[in-house]
Each structure stands twice: as structure tokens, then as C-alpha cells.
Amino acid sequence: MSDTTRYGSPKKRGFFSRLATQWQLALMSVPIFLYVLLFNYFPMWGWINAFKDYGNRKLVARGITPFNGLDNFKWLFSRQDFFIAIRNTLAMSVINLVFGTVSAVLLAVLLNELRQKAFKRTVQTVTYLPHFLSMVIVVAMAQNIFSSNGPVNDLLLRLGIVKSPVFWLGEGKYFWWLVGVINVWKEVGWGTIIYISAMTSIDPALYEAASIDGAGRLQKILHVTLPGIKSTFVILLIMNIGHLMEAGFEIQYLLGNGLTAAYSRTIDIFVLEYGTQNMDFGVATAAGIFKSVVAIILLVGANFIAKRLGEDTLV
Prior knowledge:
- The chain is mainly alpha-helical.
- It has 17 helices and no strands.
- The chain has helices at about 5, 15-20, 25-40, 55-60, 70-75, 80-115, 115-130, 135-145, 150-160, 170-200, 205-210, 215-230, 230-240, 250-255, 260-265, 265-275, 280-310.
- Helix 7 runs antiparallel to helix 10, helix 13 (about 230-240) packs antiparallel against helix 17 (about 280-310) and helix 16 (about 265-275) packs antiparallel against helix 17.
- The radius of gyration is 25 Å and the shape is globular.
């Protein structure tokens, strides 16, 4: 007996009726559901700490943490160092977003144009291998490369671009750009995977039609390849905009020092300092809530704008 005769038309079937016919898929989704519930939603119970006063050490030592309403948020937005952390976070996030997106699309297009499959696979493998390296290793490599007597300064001196070594790691004005360069080197190959997959789904007939019309390689890229991955690009851009408040933690914490603290301190480092060093869990939680709320606003806003422009959206 068909599902339609047993349960009625598909539109009228209830949730449990559909679940009974798709129990295999439901069973496969249980581990993911538990993972998200345990690591993404259950920790939200800790948000209650943002409304508690951990400043009174005597009461905290006795296991008493009185509620103080929105005092932690008020104190947070009265701190100049918190606004500096917001500035640094947004600056590095925007640099990573622009550099990462442009480099990933450019590399994907270049790889798509290669005709020698062996060379193409080699380049693709070499470029995405850094993704699997620990950030500790990556930062250690960067410190050697950009040191005063490192290969970058040596090259600049030999070419006559600079007269003395540049103090890349000790001047704050270089820090944001160094983070951007390091992130691009580490993640550009990994970021091209989705774009290359999207390019493989483009109908070859479009390229043939473009060739008949006399289009060259550049014109095919501009009028066939790039429009063919536009929906993928928009979806990834919306998701990346939702992560603008997450500039990273490891690279800033490992690469930063006292000389660049004003440029390397992100919201995550701010949370770490107040949550573990100062033991002020209320302020740290309040900063984390602020970051999450802004991220949600950015994600919804980007999705809304894309929808108004007639582009593909997440929802």
C-alpha cells in the first residue's frame, strides 16, 4: 500500500506519520542534535552569570553571588579597553573576510582554468594542507619569517625597498595586516573547495555557447564562471558576515605582545582576561552575550538585505 493511501496526501500527513516513514534519517540526526544541544544550547544557561555580581570577593568566597541587574553591561560599556577590543575585532574580521573571500575566489577560478589535472591536484593539495596545521606552528613560522633578520626583511633590504629592517612584530600598525596575511595563507586552499565544487556544477554548454560567440577565457570567467557561483558566494558571504565578531583568538593571543596589545586585543581575549585572570565571570559573560547578540543582528541583517536584492539567502 502506498504512503498516499495509508496516510493521505503528503501535505496532510502529520509530523509523527512522516517521522515513522523516515526513521532512519531521524536516527542519523540524533548525534548531531545531541552535539548541538550539548555544546551550543546547554551552555546558554551560564548567561545568568552576566546578571550576577562577582566583584564582592567575600560573598563569592562564601558561595553567594547576588544579582546586580544590568550593572555588568553598564560597566562594560563604560570601559575604553572594551571598545578598543571591539574595534580590533571588527578590523581584523573585515580584513580576513575581504582578503579570504577574494583570494579563495581568485584561486578557485585559476584552478578551474587549469587543464593539466595532475598539476591542478598538486596545487590544490599544497594550498589546503596549511589548514590542518596547528595555529601554534603557524605563528611560530610567522615569527621567524617576519622577524628583524627573517627572510621578508632580508628580501626587502636586497631589493632596496627599505634601508633598515622593519619591526613587523613590534609595531601595532602592522598587526592587523599580518593576521590577514597569515589567515589567507592558512585557509585560502580550504576556502576554494566549495567554490571549485560550485564551478563543476556549471553547465558545460554555457562555455561552448560562449566560445561560439567568440568569447575568450577572461570573458568566459566574467560572464559564465562568476555568475555560476554567485549563489554560493552570497550564501558564504552571509555566513561570514555573521562571524564578523569572531576575529579569532589563538593567532592574536600567540602573536600579540606588550608592544601590540592595543591592536591585538580582541573580545575573546577580553573575555579570557576578565573571566580567568580577574575572576569576574559576570563581566566576561556580559561581553560574550554582547558578541553573540551583535553576530545574530549581523547575520539576520545580511540575510534580509540579500533577500531584498533578490539573491539566495539562508532562510
